[in-house]
Write a structure and sequence with these properties.
Two copies of one chain form a homodimer. Chain A starts with a helix and ends with a helix. Chain A has three domains: 4-59, 434 Repressor (Amino-terminal Domain), CATH 1.10.260.40; 65-163 and 297-326, 3-Layer(aba) Sandwich (Rossmann fold); 166-295 and 330-355, 3-Layer(aba) Sandwich (Rossmann fold). In chain A, helix 1 (4-15) crosses helix 2 (19-26). In chain A, the strands form two sheets. In chain A, strands 2-1-3-4-5-11 form a six-stranded parallel beta sheet, with helices on both faces. The model of chain A is unreliable at 1-5, 54-60 and 340-356 (pLDDT under 50). The first copy, chain A, contains 13 helices and twelve strands. Chain A has helices at 4-15, 19-26, 34-46, 53-60, 76-91, 105-115, 135-142, 166-179, 195-210, 226-238, 251-264, 297-312, 345-355, and strands at residues 65-70, 95-100, 122-125, 147-150, 161-164, 185-189, 220-222, 245-248, 273-277, 291-294, 323-326, 329-331. The longest helix of chain A is centred in the first third of the chain and has 16 residues, at 76-91. The first copy, chain A, has 356 residues and is α/β, with parallel strands linked by helices.
């Protein structure tokens, strides 16, 4: 590993100045003449000198790095969010450190505790499904480390949030299923202490009630873990009181629905209509193409990063209670349209044109 | 931000010992008695003390972090690789820093140069498609920072590599297309200076020749950028000499094929058979289900991380020239089987059972 000390000494020796002068020149200190700075920079460049970031960080108290906490990675929504975050970070010349909690509360706590130690200048977080304990996030806030939540948020702890219009988009999606003839819709979702789960369920229930449809505890199914969810959903779909529509609150639950329908020979959309909150790039290519509530993932990541950098740069216009909402779009495809046995290209074209 | 200095002093004051004793106790030094260590650890825990990682890093020359360089993120192969890497890193109590080059040579160079400064203890890299310049990687090696390549590798610079059996898997996939009746197969791939592109193309050409099929410069199409690739492929697919089979060297090119076929009404598999190197989780749910060469992504990430940690821990059994190969599996689905107008569930079941 290259030692900073040796390099600074070498530059000092070759230019016949003190190490401290070299160090201050490299930090662009006003105490050092422009002429000396130019000589130091030229030689440093020639020697391929790279400052040690940890030494620099201690001096400046800046890591030039932001941390991003994601609940899971094979997830199209989060990958687009990360691209939005990176877009902003690149402009600020910051590095993006991505951490994955795998939906584990213990992982989330360990990571946040780790980040309390000054490794990053700020944190963007989407919380995991396994807990609603906020102690570790409060610890971060108490230390003054800037924090912004996106998508899965805790609104009550005084931190800016970036979300989509979960309630309204969910209401509109439910209305779409009802207008396509569904009467017994099953809403499948992640645990209800997650903000996105609660709001999307509330939007679903409100729309059902508006149309006079029954809502009771059989109207939704919570996926605590994917294996038991698969079994519970399969039982519902082949039972006597099978639903005629499924609204998946997150993408991976819709993929489970498709797998069960394929295995059990349940025909989408003529026996069962399906839609989901999803950023799946193959949504239009599935058999049949999947109707999606498409979230503005890139824009959400971009907005969350912009707010975080305003906090890092201590700009005054930031209000901790500010909640930014970027609306989603319903894209109707064959999985909710008509009573087809097979996907018809004509209908998908309508949907694809609507995307443009 | 919590200051380490103040906390060490407070622990020292409260226990009536020196700051240096506290510091050595926290580092579990043999110079300090077990009794003193226990007192220091108990009080540190009580005070919620978190050591500053940059100060610790300077002392130990360990960042307890590894860097992972990925060419792109919305990519199912790489997300599974990252999960394999994280699986190992968690056991070692290391953090994983994920960097994305977006296939840009300038990004890759900037990141590697940044990592030369001691921010990470080791680097796992899959190289970007835009360059075959290796200077920046040589810089990393000269500084003694452990490096392991996975998937997209430079074999000639004396660094361990983890790949799949690109040539053999490609040969077998091509043979499968030929056995299904294809005579004019188009191989679509990323730029040929990438190791995976070259080997997969070589496997394809060898299989074509084995069966006496023509191979010339029209037998493959390189995707330099996705927009011009889309146009070039569309032209080929609707032209007079349209291929009867497509072998996509990477997943995203197969998705482009499906989009063009959907737009142009080209029926898969009766007009065109399609297969791809892919870890797409929706492969079996597409219209029609996509035949894949499925790479052992998780295992590749796990193996690459294990080798990196052996290098970081300076174990002697590591040979820089070692190249690990983990084989892929061909999973035949409807996109290459029979002459069907629509996907039939029965055939997909065969394919799905084959997966188990």
């Amino acid at each position: 590993m290259m030692s900073e000390k040796i390099d600074l000494r070498r530059i000092a020796r070759e230019l016949n100045i003190s190490v401290s002068t070299v160090s201050r020149a490299l930090r662009d200190s006003h105490e050092i003449s422009v002429e000396t700075k130019q000589k130091v920079f030229a030689l440093a460049h020639q020697l391929n000198y790279v400052p040690n970031p940890y030494a620099s960080s201690l001096r400046r108290q800046k890591s030039k790095t932001i941390g991003v906490i994601l609940p899971e990675l094979p997830n199209n929504f989060f990958t687009h969010v990360v691209n939005g975050i990176e877009y902003v970070a690149r402009q600020k010349d910051y590095h993006v450190l991505i951490y994955i909690t795998h939906e584990q509360a213990s992982q989330e706590k360990a990571l946040i505790r780790h980040l309390q130690s000054g490794r990053v200048d700020g944190v963007l977080a989407s919380v995991c499904a396994q807990t609603n304990d906020i102690e570790h996030f409060l610890g971060l806030i108490q230390l003054g480390i800037p924090l912004v939540f996106f998508d899965r948020v805790y609104e009550e702890i005084g931190v800016p949030t970036v979300t989509t219009n979960d309630y309204e988009a969910s209401f509109a999606a439910t209305e779409h299923l009802i207008q396509q003839g569904c009467k017994h819709i099953l809403h499948v979702c992640l645990p209800l202490h997650l903000s996105i789960s609660r709001k999307r369920l509330e939007g679903f229930c409100a729309a059902m009630k508006k149309y006079g449809l029954l809502v009771d505890s059989h109207s939704w199914l919570v996926a605590d873990d994917m294996e038991s969810f698969y079994r519970a959903l399969e039982t519902r779909l082949i039972g006597n009181c099978a639903p005629d529509g499924i609204f998946a609150s997150v993408e991976k639950l819709a993929i489970t629905v498709y797998h069960i329908c394929q295995k059990r020979g349940i025909r989408i959309p003529d026996q069962l209509k399906v839609l989901a909150f999803s950023n799946l790039e193959t949504a239009a290519l599935l058999a049949p193409p999947l109707t999606t509530v498409t979230q503005p993932a890139f824009e959400m990541g971009k907005k969350a990063a912009e707010i975080l950098f305003r906090k890092i740069e201590k700009r005054r216009e930031i209000f901790e209670e500010q909640h930014y909402v970027i609306p989603s779009a319903l894209i109707a495809r064959a999985s909710t349209l008509g009573r087809l046995s097979y996907p018809k290209f004509s209908e998908e074209h309508v949907a694809m044109n609507a995307e443009k």
